[in-house]
Design brief:
alpha+beta, Trna Endonuclease, Chain: A, domain 1, 2 domains, 8-stranded antiparallel beta sheet, 5-stranded mixed beta sheet, 7 helices, about 25% helix, globular, binds 2-acetamido-2-deoxy-beta-D-glucopyranose, NERD, NERD domain-containing protein, signal
């Protein structure tokens, strides 16, 4: 009797493991990327008609490397390079400009280099990249901001923060209808410029940023976002055959829908085929197509801040966007 019971228990555990093993992503810290997308969504809601580009990797000719930009916000008359500091605790600034964070029961203190310095450093790098792609911005059009969206962020003295920093209190106070609050950091200096000129600049800026190098993104169930690089699909041969065309050069977005047919779990993938080639603009036409594969098919993904490659079953994926 005991033998049966133990065997039953072991089988049950194996079954549970099988059912709930959605790859090994549980230990991955996604709080930074989740914060990025939470901030990006709120900004797009606050500034009607604005566009946010998350997770850019801008080539820097001087250093010969790519520079991470958390996000760029493009509004009607201005663009901002935004760094998100999802830090919590009591934050003050020391005499060298470093941020001193005190958090936790033990009042552990952490010292961070002034994030406004890094953000301001990225502005001319992005300007140079845009210029190289034919988008010349008026001086001062692009500037940098640091947003602290963590509800547990507490400024010891809010007066010490430079105007480039949006503390949590200021972040919560931003309201769409509050034009005066906006102009605090959306300067409005370019409002007087010719409307058509502004619109065409805006359009050019957006189309250039949308084809700039950025991290691929994976949106998982439970409001989780991962930035990194899509590697490949893993699964049964016939499924892989159906997915063979899903490659960076052809596909920009993939949305997963689940269906269950006769007890066999399948996922319908809605795939946006959209040529990324920005050199022949206009010629690019995009179209949605569908593919149906087993939900156990896996997406192999390399998160940008992890050394380990991760696998995610389609059953846990909501969408994936591939960079140009
Ligand atoms: C910020 O980080 C905390 C943990 O440090 C995390 O719980 C939270 O989801 C993150 N995102 C936001 C928007 O605060
Ligand atoms: C990953 O990308 C985010 C968003 O651009 C960036 O803040 C972060 O520094 C990157 N991490 C690494 C290790 O490159
Ligand atoms: C931790 O620091 C805060 C703010 O400076 C203070 O109010 C609190 O009493 C400190 N707690 C401990 C255990 O030292
Ligand atoms: C804020 O602090 C509270 C209490 O320490 C904690 O329960 C909560 O998870 C924290 N929130 C974030 C977003 O870090
Ligand atoms: C990934 O990012 C989070 C949040 O920024 C950080 O706490 C963690 O140490 C990073 N991991 C690696 C491997 O860089």
């Amino acid at each position: 009797m005991w033998v049966e019971l133990i065997c039953g228990l072991v089988l049950f555990c194996l079954l549970m493991l099988y059912l709930f093993d959605d790859g090994d992503h549980l230990d991955l810290d996604t709080s930074h990327s989740n914060a990025l997308f939470a901030v990006a969504n709120r900004l797009e809601q606050l500034y009607y008609g604005s566009k946010v580009y998350v997770g850019l990797q801008i080539p820097d000719a001087d250093s010969g490397s790519r520079q991470n930009i958390d996000m760029v916000l493009v509004t009607k008359g201005e663009a901002l390079v935004i760094s998100v500091m999802n830090i919590s605790g009591f934050v003050s600034i020391d005499k060298n400009g470093n941020w001193v964070c005190t958090a936790g029961l033990s009042n552990k203190t952490k010292c961070l280099p002034d994030p406004t310095v890094e953000t301001k450093r990225l502005v001319p790098i992005l300007e140079a990249y845009l210029e190289q792609r034919g988008v010349v911005l008026p001086e001062g059009y692009l500037s940098g901001k640091v947003i602290c969206p963590n509800p547990n962020f507490s400024a010891v003295d809010s007066d010490v923060f430079p105007p480039e920093v949006i503390t949590y209190d200021q972040w919560t106070q931003l309201k769409p209808e509050q034009r005066s609050m906006l102009s605090g950091w959306i300067k409005g200096a370019f409002r007087s410029a010719k409307k058509e000129m502004q619109e065409s600049l805006n359009e050019k800026l957006c189309s250039t940023l949308s084809t700039a190098p950025m991290w691929d993104r994976l949106e998982l169930k439970g409001n989780k976002y991962i930035l990194g690089e899509f590697m490949e699909f893993k699964g049964k041969q016939d499924d892989l055959q159906a997915l063979i065309n899903i490659r960076r050069s052809k596909v920009s977005r993939l949305i997963v829908q689940k269906i269950s047919m006769f007890g066999f779990a399948r996922s319908t993938l809605q795939v946006l085929y959209s040529p990324h080639d920005y050199r022949n603009e206009g010629a690019a036409s995009s179209e949605w197509k569908e593919a149906m594969v087993r939900s156990s098919t896996e997406v192999v993904f390399q998160p940008n801040n992890s050394t380990k490659v991760r696998k995610y079953k389609l059953s846990s994926v909501i969408s994936m966007s591939l960079s140009a």
